[in-house]
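Possible race condition, two jobs.
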Amino acid sequence: MALSFKDEQRDGVTVLTLSGRLVLGDESNQLRGVLKSLISEGHKNILVDLGEVPYIDSAGLGTLVAGFTSAQSAGGTMKLANLTKKITEQLHITKLVTVFEVFDSVEAGVRSFSDSHPTS
């Protein structure tokens, strides 16, 4: 199943919804391109919704880490939401839970950006 992307703005956060398998090849390359494009367009706060991603391989995980690093280098951040049980286990096994902030829902993820940057 090919990987598809949908992005939308919610309260100053770019929510990138992925659907399909995130694996080595076109899928990883496409995601890398989408993330690069969003970051270069000035989207600093990115929340990746993985609720419709049944499987991620090591190349897919590497692409997420590269996106996280690119966002940080540009002065932003990238967080994850709606992880399946399998993907949650992968993040624990690879210790990537120490890298990514992970949220149970898109709403909680979006809220976390405003919680971490209070305006006054």
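Job #2 (started ~2 s after job #1):
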Amino acid sequence: MKAFTHKKTDKLDSEFIAQLALNNMIQPSRIFPIDHRAFRSCIRLRHSLVQKRTDIKNKAHAILAPEMFNLKNVLTDIFGKNGIMILSGISSGKSVDQIIASLSPNVRKKSDQIREVLNNEISQSAAFRLQICLKLIKSLDDEIEVLENEIFNYAYNNHKHEMEILMSVPGIGKLGAATLIAEIGDFNDFSSGDKLASWLGLVPNVYQSADKYHNGRITKRGPKEARWILTQIAQAAAKTKNSKLKEFFNRKKKSIGHSKAIIALARKIATIIWHLITNDEMYEDETGYKKGETQKTKIVENEILSVDERITIMSEIFAITRKKEEKST
């Protein structure tokens, strides 16, 4: 509409927009159905909670660093099952033998290294702060699990075939497929894969004057969650063996560098998934790539509370907070 010039007032603007709409000169905005918007909100809430959990894990790392607890030299993930057992034992004051006895057999093989780390004494303040961090991480893990159950229930009940098509592409798992479906919606709203890539903000800004032509940074106009998940998918696809996508990434990397090659691969994947969904095809690779067997998803129905049960829970929470306020005063 900016191409048409006229005197700018609210009344003239509204009349002009109405005329363009009546003559089918502008397309309506993409508004998803209410169920799909709720599905997308769950995806975005999960992403937000994961970011918060990462922040708390970084806080825990910051607590352990001054205390000389370098568990990263022993465990690949200090917040895995065995890592949590060690951190819980440290914060609760358990002995080294008790902590080692609670670990899995594979990790107990490194008992000498673990003893060297745990021989350092942790201060009471650090143990107290670490315990709070672990409780918050456990709480967020539980809430993220509930959200994932809700997300996969909706995805497999309403978009099972699209999930299977997307998961046939290298680098796309269950969560990646569900996120793409939630953020993009109906792929048939776009006339081509390039239009989808443009809507996602994965195309460069173009500056042209006379015979001078310059490409700038990507526009980043679409949903940032979709761009983020496509970037993660591209990074996974770039490491996939015997894949045309990896060959494309390696070819681009030589000329434009690693970071730009990842974005270029993300755009290519966006055009590929548009073609697959709109043509109802599974991904096939000429180089002999075969997707491994995907783990079967067990659909777990979350408990739906009645109105009376919700009112009871809210009244109990209100009573607890009121008691706390009375004690503090």
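The beta strands are 204-209, 212-218.
Logs attached separately.
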